[in-house]
Design goal:
The protein is an alpha+beta fold and 109 residues long. Helix content is 34%, strand content 28%.
C-alpha cells in the first residue's frame, strides 16, 4: 500500500459549489475510484489560502495503468468537466499534472 497526496487551488467563489457536489459524488465515480485500487480517499480544504489537499491509499500494483483506466472512464470524464473549472492548478505542478503530486516526508501509525 502507498500513501499518496496531491494539492490544487480552488476558485474562492466556487467553494460552496465544490462542497455541494462532493457531498453527493456520483456512484459511478466512486465505483471507478474503488476499481482503480484507491482506498481511504479524502479531500481537505484550507481557507483562506483556498487550497485542496487530497489523500488516499493506493492498494494496486500499477498506478499508471489504473490512472489511465480512470481517465478513460466516461463518467469520470464528466465529473472532471464539472469540477475542473472550480480548480486552480499550481504553477509548480509537473507538465502532465492537474493536481500536483506531493512527496511523503513523514508517517506514524
Amino acid at each position: 500500500m502507498q500513501r499518496m497526496g496531491q494539492i490544487i487551488g480552488i476558485d474562492s467563489g466556487r467553494i460552496a459549489e465544490y462542497k455541494r457536489v462532493h457531498a453527493a459524488v456520483w456512484p459511478a465515480v466512486l465505483a471507478r475510484i474503488t476499481a482503480c485500487h484507491i482506498r481511504n480517499y479524502s479531500i481537505f480544504l484550507k481557507e483562506p489560502e483556498n487550497l485542496l489537499f487530497a489523500y488516499w491509499e493506493y492498494h494496486g500494483t500499477d498506478f499508471a495503468s489504473d490512472m489511465a483506466a480512470m481517465a478513460a472512464d466516461p463518467k469520470t470524464q464528466e465529473w472532471w468537466k464539472l469540477c475542473g473549472p472550480m480548480q486552480r492548478p499550481l504553477e509548480a505542478r509537473q507538465p502532465d499534472e492537474w493536481w500536483a503530486m506531493m512527496e511523503p516526508v513523514f508517517h506514524h501509525d
